[in-house]
Amino acid sequence: MDLQQQSYRAVKFLVFLLAAGVLVADQSQAENPCANGPPVEMNPAECCATPMLVDGSIMMDCYQKYGEQTKKQLKLDGVPRGCCIAECAMNATNMYADGMLKRDDVAKMFMDAMRDKPEWMALVRDATNACFELAASKMEEIEAGAKLEPSFEGEKICHPISGVVLRCMGMMMFAQCPPTVFNDTENCKKLREYGSMCPML
Ligand SMILES: *[C@@H]1O[C@H](CO)[C@@H](O)[C@H](O)[C@H]1NC(C)=O
Ligand SMILES: *[C@@H]1O[C@H](CO)[C@@H](O)[C@H](O)[C@H]1NC(C)=O
């Protein structure tokens, strides 16, 4: 594997990790099934090679710009902060404006990315609808996140909508990985179960 492919894989993995981080933010600590972390130490990409939804070089560029700040932000409590990697990618593809994603264009971009991957098409179409519905149901929290003030030197505040949708997509795709793609081992089954409810970073 050459270097570029390797970094694409790394980015893909990271995007996946970010992807998993949304749905449980407001779960109570007491019955939190995620409290102990993933049950197995495995790279999710070894269990399900999820295809990229956004051009790899764009993701890489955005990760370079905002990866460090995103890692810091994930450690903060309170209202979830917007993911600037995701917003940067949605800006670069012209999908984001004024606190909104252009839903039809995003759906088309995702489907175009699946052009040569028929086993993913129906899943990605359904996941796109589900993730936009999820975002709509979380609008209050999303708007609150957009209004946060920087909490450390140089923190850029991004609108959470892009991250919510991209993370949700990653989580859905992993949780529903097509049988032809899924690495059907005990460990991977455990990770899929965990990954369908918990953030993995
Ligand atoms: C499938 O999972 C096993 C461990 O459960 C791992 O060793 C192997 O590398 C995985 N295969 C692929 C293609 O990633
Ligand atoms: C995305 O574009 C908007 C302008 O539409 C800008 O305000 C915002 O800072 C950009 N976000 C990133 C992460 O570059």
Automatic annotation (TrEMBL):
InterPro entries xref list: OBP47-like_dom, Odorant-binding_protein
Keyword line: Disulfide bond, Secreted, Signal, Transport
Bilayer-crossing regions: none
The UniProt record lists the keyword Signal: yes
Source species, domain of life: Eukaryota
Domain (OBP47-like) ranges: 51-194
One of the record's GO cellular component terms: extracellular region
Subcellular location: Secreted
Entry similarity comment: Belongs to the PBP/GOBP family.
Protein name: OBP47-like domain-containing protein
Organism, as annotated: Anopheles atroparvus (European mosquito)
